[in-house]
């Protein structure tokens, strides 16, 4: 079974970018990688592609949470942190909501859900940074012609990352209020997954036909 390359379409980058100061290089891309491999250059979907816009139920939870954690974690300036909180409140529906006719009721106690989500996102960042650094070191020592054992090592790191994301995402059910968790799940299923596409990875070696360099969501 061929491995899948995961890309996040520009729509979700733009949506979150309205609230979060994403690096300029990321907002210029039409697709953004969220795993350890490069994507094919063709704009035509390959056989086996899973398009979240058409089949969001086929996008794994850990892939959607990875995209969300990548874009909302490690925001250090006061402006970035305020923007992230605005996004979580206004778009996702966490925390204290406006008291107006037609507005959603508040979820949880005050802004506890927002703060607890951010704690989880920062835990993700601390843990994923270790795996990202290991992958970068492996690539720097072997690219552009890595032997099979290096590709196997990267694949094992990717599995560790997937398991770590699933672990942090699962913890949100305990960290958030019941209403807040339900809203987060709805946002992930009805918005985040719709903007993710999973395509089969190229069968040629890295730096060969069908590959191009791209970066990660920071």
Describe it for me?
It is a single chain. The chain is of the alpha+beta class and 218 residues long. It contains seven helices and four strands. It has helices at residues 10-17, 24-27, 61-72, 78-92, 112-142, 148-175, 178-192; strands spanning 4-9, 31-33, 50-51, 196-200. A four-stranded antiparallel sheet has the order 2-1-4-3.
Number of strands: 4
Rounded Rg = 18 Å
Proportion of residues in helical segments? 40-55%
The largest β sheet comes out as: 4 strands, antiparallel
Instruction: Give the low-pLDDT segments.
Output: 10-41, 209-218
Shape: globular
* Beta-strand percentage range: 5-15%
Give helix and strand order, one letter per element, not per position: EHHEEHHHHHE
Instruction: State the helix count.
Output: 7
How would you name the oligomeric state of the polypeptide chains in this document?
single chain
Number of domains: 1
Average pLDDT: 79
Strand order of the largest sheet: 2-1-4-3
Find the structural class using helix and strand composition.
Answer: alpha+beta
Terminal Cα separation, in Å?
29 Å
């Amino acid at each position: 079974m061929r491995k899948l390359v995961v890309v996040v379409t520009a729509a979700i980058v733009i949506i979150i970018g309205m609230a979060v100061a994403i690096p300029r290089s990321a907002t210029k891309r039409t697709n953004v990688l969220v795993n350890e491999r490069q994507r094919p250059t063709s704009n035509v979907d390959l056989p086996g592609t899973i398009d979240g816009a058409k089949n969001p139920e086929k996008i794994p939870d850990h892939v959607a949470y990875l995209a969300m954690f990548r874009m909302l974690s490690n925001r250090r300036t006061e402006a970035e942190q305020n923007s992230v909180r605005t996004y979580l409140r206004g778009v996702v529906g966490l925390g204290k909501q406006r008291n107006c006719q037609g507005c959603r009721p508040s979820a949880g106690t005050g802004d506890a859900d927002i703060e607890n989500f951010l704690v989880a996102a920062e835990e993700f960042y601390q843990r994923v940074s270790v795996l990202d650094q290991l992958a970068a070191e492996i690539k720097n020592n072997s690219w552009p012609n890595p032997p099979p054992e290096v590709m196997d090592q990267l694949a094992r790191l990717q599995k560790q990352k997937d398991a770590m994301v699933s672990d942090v995402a699962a913890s949100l059910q305990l960290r958030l209020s019941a209403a807040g968790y339900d809203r987060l799940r709805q946002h992930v299923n009805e918005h985040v997954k719709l903007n993710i596409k999973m395509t089969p990875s190229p069968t040629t070696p890295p730096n060969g036909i069908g590959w191009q360099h791209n970066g990660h969501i920071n």
